[in-house]
């Protein structure tokens, strides 16, 4: 009987429920990007740290000033306090990389000129005397333009908050005329929508805001889900306000006035988005930065004949001063992280709540004062005879 050839064995791929005891190590760089050299990583460590400190301090919530804050602000001890807090200032910490770099460069130039005096790098100070006014004008324009943007953002927010307070005041029914149950429910919801709009606008223009956490106590859960699903949350809340106004039982003239108040909200959105999306012309920012860099790169060469090794502290003082001015202009160019928006929204909420309580309290007291006193004006006797009876 002829032998059959051996049947080739089939390899069965069995799916395992447990992982392989010795899985291959994951690729160290899945995106196939070349890691920077060690020297570049070390040189970028200080700028990365300074940027992280600056961004972390920008997210800090700023309080509104009260009387105690103003007393400390104008105190004669403020100069000492500001000087002692220099190493915790985010402006100064963010400037550690450029100031230290220019100071080290000045020390290198001074060392070279000391070791090789025959080949010392020197130059006349006349170009500095001619270009100093130009640098001063650039810095002045930069800071003034940034403060103009800061002031425009502040005024836009004041208009939004004033319109919200005015609209909430018009929603409340007069105290002697309580609203029906259904209408009262809509009015309460409308006031919450009005209070939620500044909060949503704040979250819309400030990065990494907790939208759900900020709106949690103002909106119902279903309304909050609709707002969070919207691509433009402030406009979604405006739509809530608009439709609620049309559902309320209001006088047509009053409804028209209240709907027209929404234009202040839309204007506030436009101004805020314009300030966020359009910075100061980049030509001025780049020119100022390049001018400052070239100025401090050549400063040790210009001052060597007159100052010698004093060029090192002179460069440090000049870089720290001028770069701080430019840094302040860059910071306030984006105005909204500089404003106490959380405190302003809370102040609006507390103010409307206090007005409601005062309105109810005043109405209760006036009703009790005038109850049962006919022929009197605001609870006071209308004749001397009634006054004598009271006495």
From TrEMBL:
It is a multi-pass membrane protein. Residues 1-36, 371-391 are annotated as: Disordered. Residues 20-29 have a biased composition (Pro residues). One of its GO terms (biological process) is regulation of photosynthesis, light reaction. It holds the Pfam family Bestrophin_2. GO terms for molecular function: voltage-gated chloride channel activity. The chain crosses the membrane at residues 91-112, 118-141. It is found in: Membrane. One of its GO terms (cellular component) is membrane. Its main location: membrane. InterPro entries: VCCN1/2, YneE/VCCN1/2-like. Keywords: Ion transport, Membrane, Transmembrane, Transmembrane helix, Transport. This is Uncharacterized protein. It comes from Digitaria exilis.
């Amino acid at each position: 009987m002829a032998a059959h050839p051996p049947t080739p064995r089939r390899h069965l791929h069995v799916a395992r429920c447990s992982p392989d005891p010795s899985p291959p190590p994951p690729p160290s760089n899945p995106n196939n990007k070349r890691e920077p050299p060690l020297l570049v990583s070390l040189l970028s460590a200080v700028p990365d740290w300074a940027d992280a400190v600056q961004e972390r301090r920008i997210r800090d919530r700023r309080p509104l000033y009260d009387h105690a804050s103003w007393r400390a602000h104008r105190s004669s001890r403020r100069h000492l306090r500001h000087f002692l807090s220099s190493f915790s200032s985010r402006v100064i910490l963010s400037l550690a990389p450029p100031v230290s770099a220019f100071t080290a460069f000045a020390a290198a130039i001074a060392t070279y000129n000391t070791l090789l005096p025959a080949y010392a790098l020197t130059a006349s100070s006349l170009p500095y005397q001619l270009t100093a006014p130009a640098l001063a004008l650039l810095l002045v324009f930069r800071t003034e333009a940034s403060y103009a943007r800061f002031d425009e953002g502040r005024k836009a927010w004041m208009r939004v908050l004033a319109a919200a307070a005015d609209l909430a005041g018009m929603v409340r029914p007069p105290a002697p005329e309580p609203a029906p149950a259904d209408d009262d429910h809509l009015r309460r919801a409308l006031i919450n929508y009005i209070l939620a709009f500044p909060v949503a606008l704040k979250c819309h223009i400030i990065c990494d805001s907790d939208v759900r956490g900020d709106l949690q106590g103002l909106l119902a859960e279903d309304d909050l889900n609709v707002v969070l699903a919207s691509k433009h949350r402030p406009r979604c809340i405006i739509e809530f306000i608009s439709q609620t106004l049309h559902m309320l039982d209001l006088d047509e003239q009053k409804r028209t006035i209240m709907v027209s108040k929404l234009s202040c909200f839309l204007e506030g959105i436009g101004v805020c988005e314009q300030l966020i999306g359009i910075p100061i012309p980049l030509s001025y920012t780049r020119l100022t930065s390049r001018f400052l860099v070239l100025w401090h790169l050549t400063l040790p060469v210009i001052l060597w004949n007159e100052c010698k090794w004093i060029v090192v502290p002179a460069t440090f003082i000049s870089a720290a001063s001028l770069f701080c001015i430019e840094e302040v202009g860059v910071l306030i160019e984006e105005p909204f992280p500089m404003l106490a928006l959380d405190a302003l929204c809370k102040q609006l909420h507390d103010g409307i709540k206090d007005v409601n309580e005062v309105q109810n309290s005043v109405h209760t007291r006036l009703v009790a004062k005038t109850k049962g006193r006919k022929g009197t004006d605001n609870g006071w006797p209308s004749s001397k005879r009634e006054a004598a009876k009271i006495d």
